[in-house]
Amino acid sequence: MKHPPRRTRRLLVTAGAVGALTLGALASLPTTSAMAATGCSVTYTTNSWSGGFTASVTITNLGDAVSGWTLGFSFPDGGQRVTQGWSATWSQSGRAVTAQDLSWNGSLATGASTNIGFNGSFTGANPSPTSFTLNGTVCTGSTGPTTPPPSTPPPTTPPPGGQTPVAINGQLRVCGVNLCNQYGRPIQLRGMSSHGIQWFGNCYNSASLDALATDWRADLFRIAMYVQEQGYETDPTGFTNRVNNLVEEATRRGMYAMIDFHTLTPGDPMHNLERAKTFFATVSARHAAKNNVIYEITNEPNGVSWSTIKNYAEQVIPVIRANDPDAVIIVGTRAWSSLGVSEGSNHTEIVNNPVNASNIMYAFHFYAASHRDNYRAEVERAAARLPLFVTEFGTVDYTGDGGVDLASSTQWLDLLDRLKIGYANWTFSDKAEGSAALRPGTCNGSNYTGTSVLTASGAFMRERIRTPDNFPTS
Ligand code: IDC
Question: 20 to 30 A Cα–Cα from 268, which one of 18, 95, 206, 388?
């Protein structure tokens, strides 16, 4: 396959000479002024091919710390267009382009940089812009008040009010039957599960994860790493790296990252014990210093006794604890994480013989069109005695396909909200199956925001997830 020729260009914008001007401007300020120092530099780098380009823009704040920013610049050529941006909210009016911070990159300390970018198109030439403003201040490469040229957007927008879920809640821990935040208050995390990353890796990119964090306002991203079915066992190093990268992406956006060791077939977790030890030793070492990683050590044990699952858990948990002593760990339960119900048992087998470890929770999974009142009643009973996390559920039937059962899904989520049980919905993907939130083909494109890209399940889940969180801070 032949690629079109690429040109790389790099431009450092630090047009420094402001001396006399700056002095004049300073002289007109009241001497007691507490006005914040402003200043910035921007590098703008492009890779282009015929008619298209990618721009990478690094903003450095040289002034006092800011808690929100807007970058402005103008394209020199009338045919230049931003077609898809990332790590900022991009807009264009005529030649004037504006990029506004997202909640996770709005704060820039003095000297701090952030990188944003976009894909663009052009018709004639593709010259780089030569002047940039940050919050209305021209980026000259030094500090000092300057007057923005009239064509640039006005000093903008209040800093983003919202903090990210991780910024607010910090390191979580299990408290009684709940999950508590850094203030010791029970919280519920609401988010989405990936599909198998061996199949739908293309669905997890900057644009889609930005949408999950800022448009869906998800608290949580579950990373489903199948072990079998062309998953981890075929390339342990490769899958470990992919999981690590997705944890970093979730972290950058202030979301909790749940690492799901997605065992399914065979149902005996012991089949994967050595793989689990190797995998969790590596990922827990890598993320030990983070406060937003939750470990789910086996997805859906089935066809095995609770005591086998407990035995597995008591061998894997110490591997994680050796690196990351305070992380919350979730243990799958008997019969596809149904607390045993789907194989004729119930939660009391766990209550009578709990995993010998602290700071752990037990997984419960349901598919709303298949699992109804008797499962809800069991969750209600179990939740009084065990810390539960719904690490996976579908709005459809247990095959992952079929229509959305709105009534049952609503009953389920109302119950979980009331009990403050966290959840991750299966799946944030564009597979052609009822449980997928994104319409088929979405992951080939670059837009993941709004409802036009969503299936019935996706639209329902986005509405539930984006409602305001209740995260007490005292
Ligand atoms: C299903 C996917 C489907 C895929 C299959 C492969 O939706 O596209 O072909 O896995 O095994 C679970 C599992 C989860 C299942 C899901 C739906 O954790 O892997 O995903 N489900 O069947 N438990 C109950 C239902």
Answer: 388
142-192 pLDDT, tens digit each: 876 544 444 444 333 332 446 999 999 999 999 999 999 999 999 999 999
The CB of 226 under 6 Å from ligand 1? The reply is no
> Ligand 1: which atom is nearest the Cα of residue 400?
17
Atom of ligand 1 at shortest range from CA of 433:
8
Task: Label residues 205-215 b or e (16+ Cβ within 10 Å = b).
Answer: ebbbbbbbbbb
Catalytic residue among 249, 349, 378, 392: 392
DSSP track, 95-139: TEEEEE--TTT--B-TT-EEEEEEEEE-SS--PPP--EEETTEE-
- Asked if the structure places residue 18 within a domain, the reply is no
Task: Examine the residue annotation and report whether 300 is marked as an active-site residue of this protein.
Answer: yes
- Is residue 143, in this structure, part of any structural domain at all? no
In short, whether 400's Cβ falls inside 6 Å of ligand 1 is yes
Nearest residue by C-alpha to atom 22 in ligand 1: 399
Q: Are residues 327 and 449 in the same domain?
A: yes
Same domain, 107 and 198: no
Q: Count of alpha carbons within 13 Å of 226, Cβ hemisphere only?
A: 16
Q: Which domain-ending residue is among 138, 155, 189?
A: 138
- CATH number, domain of 60, equals 2.60.40.290
**CA nearest ligand 1 atom 4, residue:** 400
300 lines ligand 1 (CB under 6 A): yes
d(CA 250, ligand 1 centre) in Å: 23
User: Could you write out the DSSP letters of every residue in 303-341?
Assistant: SS-HHHHHHHHHHHHHHHHHH-TT--EEE--HHHHSTTG
Do 117 and 201 lie in one domain? The reply is: no
418 lies in some domain: yes
By alpha-carbon position, which residue is closest to atom 25 of ligand 1? 398
Residues 180 and 325 in one domain: yes
Query: How do residues 415-456 score in pLDDT, each as one tens digit?
Result: 999 999 999 999 999 999 999 999 999 999 999 999 999 999
Domain shared by 69 and 214, yes or no: no
How many domains in the chain? Answer: 2
- Which residue range is the domain that position 381 belongs to? 165-465
